[in-house]
Amino acid sequence: LAGFGFITFETEEERDTVLAAVGEELEVEGTVVTVAAARGRRRRTYRRREE
Hints:
Strand order of the largest sheet: 1-2-3
Radius of gyration: 10 Å
Largest sheet: 3 strands, antiparallel
InterPro entries: Nucleotide-bd_a/b_plait_sf (IPR012677), RBD_domain_sf (IPR035979)
Structural class: alpha+beta
GO molecular function, one term: nucleic acid binding
Distance between the termini: 20 Å
Protein name: RRM domain-containing protein
Shape: flat
Strand content: 25-35%
Number of strands: 3
């Protein structure tokens, strides 16, 4: 996920699988997706693509 400004998930299952793999959590507020590392060291914000 690092370095990508836009990420798109087709399903919640896909989202959960990807985030579990990188050990991070996803918080969704409207169209803003915030990915926060479990240890709290990094915080990155992504905007969902709207189709």
